[in-house]
Sequence to fold (443 residues):
Amino acid sequence: MNSAKTLDDFELTPYLKKMILFSSGGPFIDGYVLVIIGIALTQIAPYMNMDAYQMALAGVAALAGTLFGAAIFGYLTDLIGRKFMFTFDIVAIAVISILCMFIDTAIQLIVLRFFIGIVIGADYPIATSLIVEFTPRSHRASAMGFITAAWFVGAVCADIAGYFLLETAEGWRYMLGSAVIPCIVLILGRWNTPESPRWLLSKNRIDEARTVVTNYFGADFILEPEIHEKIMYYELFKNKYFKKVIFIGVMWACQIAPMFILYTFGPQIIGAFGFDEEKSVVFGDIVISFFFLAGTILAMCCLDSIGRRPMIIGSYVGMTVSLGVLSVVQKSNIWIIVGAFACYAFFSGAPGILEWLYPNELFPTNIRASAVGVTMAFSRVGAIVSSYVLPIILTTHGIRVTMLAGTLITILGLSICITMAPETKDLKLSESCTAELKQQIKK
Fold:
């Protein structure tokens, strides 16, 4: 038994790589669905005579859905397991995407965007919990980074699809329905995924957990000293767990609020700087998406060597400076504007990974998916408010005030990271989920 490995010590097997690949499909679809609406709205708005408030609701509806989906299905994932939910939510996304092709009113668009947000939000606690519970600690940050990068790949694919469909008659219908294509691939790839052995252990189903590991890794394992006593959902809002929820939720909200605004209303924002030609605006959006992806890939490679805390603080400094520049520049060459947005995008890489890695590392198995869901929902509150309010500010007060508001949001994120961000690199999952934030900061 002494020679047996723990779940943190297994190698990154071909099967694990496959699981990480198909787990990344949820974030891919999230990025695709969120970005495609920004391009589709350039056609939908005049077609449906939408005003600024209806456009804001259409942009924010999916975010509101992810709030409820993450919170509800995170709890269900801890209750009934990861396996069933892992495939069910992708089937639901495919069905709703098809329905979006047949809408004719703004209210239908807003309602369906809300429902697709629910099932997309459900995928995050399901997929990230499953991955972190299977992946060895030496690959945990890179695996989560791969999942995060998939979001930006989805965004780039949406930009490219939208770019070519802009000249198609009622191309917006094809844009909204096109998400069904990656859904079909994911359903096939996720079929027969095993249950998480850590979740089985947390339910005291030791023989089943041992069978999963033996079948898929060909080795035995030892039971790690993790928290296995029953922890109720409401305990996330008490004592040490609530401090972690506050830290992750605020850090997360301050990263995604400007990012979601940029993606959902990217063409309108870049156009507000004086560049109204439709395709050049979308092309600028594609360039920015590639920089989001580049920053994510670099952070994925550096998080285990540099560490979580210095990476997230340094990244927030870069994000704040980038948006600060945009708040003072006047209308200029599109490449200057895109360059400033690209710098913001590049520095968003590490926070984009850590908003998924931190909640999975800092909470024990039996409330891990619930914690991911709660912190994601917490973050979405800020994103929803800003995604609804800032487009209205853009219309009524202009681009400089809008960018200044984004800068203030990232300053808040920087402050919370300096105050509370922990260091969890090199820790086993059983160690990182039991440590207090202040103790980790002292280390």
Notes: The CA atoms of residues 48 and 104 lie 7 Å apart. The chain has 20 helices and no strands. Confidence is low (pLDDT under 50) at residues 438-443. The two ends are 32 Å apart (CA to CA).
